[in-house]
Amino acid sequence: MRIDFSEIQDIESFINIPEGSYLCTIADIKVTHTREGSPRWSLRLDVAEGEFAGRIAGWDSLVWSERGLSRVREVLGLLGFDVGGVVDIQPDDLRDKRLRAQFVAEVWENEQTGKPVHRLRVPYRGYGAAEIDTPY
């Protein structure tokens, strides 16, 4: 096999679908912590229906810090949890839940490699309930 690598862009791309709004399933949850020590639940969002069903749409995180709890409450409410008071929840409780997510492309530079990284992200208010057509 012969290939001219001078024509290949030196980028890291994690984009599997076009930008847009998709009904997604929470397929995986990874639990880590922020530098400040707050729990972070990283959610793998898979497209649930349509042309791109089954593809990984992207990852997003819920950060259980004082600043992040407003977004956590909003997302849990959209997933059907009663967020009007005390909630006892574990990461696996989110698995297979569905919601609508808006994905927008972003590019940033990998500090270790210097290469541009292309990925999709969910904006702060980029979620909606599964039964509606578009997020807020």
CATH first level = Mainly Beta
Number of helical segments? Answer: 1
| Rg, Cα atoms, Å | 17 Å
Strand count, sense and barrel status of the largest sheet are: 7 strands, mixed
Q: Please trace the helix and strand order, writing H or E for each element.
A: EEEEHEEE
Assess the beta-strand content as a share of residues: 35-45%
Shape category = globular
The CATH topology label is: OB fold (Dihydrolipoamide Acetyltransferase, E2P)
Q: State the CATH architecture.
A: Beta Barrel
Number of beta-strand segments:
7
Short description:
The protein has 136 residues and is mainly beta.
How is this structure best described in words?
- The protein has about 140 residues and is mainly beta.
- It has one domain: OB fold (Dihydrolipoamide Acetyltransferase, E2P).
- It has 1 helix and 7 strands; from the N terminus they run ββββαβββ.
- It has one helix at about 70-80, and strands at about 10-15, 20-35, 40-45, 55-65, 100-110, 115-120, 125-130.
- Strands 1, 2, 3, 4, 5, 6 and 7 form a 7-stranded mixed sheet that branches.
- Strand 3 and strand 4 (about 55-65) form a beta hairpin.
- It is globular and about 60 Å long.
- The termini are far apart.
- About 15% of the residues are buried.
- The mean pLDDT is about 90.
Keywords:
mainly beta, 136 residues, 1 helix
How are the SSEs ordered, and which strands pair?
Blueprint: E1 12-13, E2 20-33, E3 39-47, E4 56-63, H1 69-78, E5 98-109, E6 116-121, E7 127-128
Parallel strand pairs: 1-6
Antiparallel strand pairs: 2-3, 2-5, 3-4, 5-6, 5-7
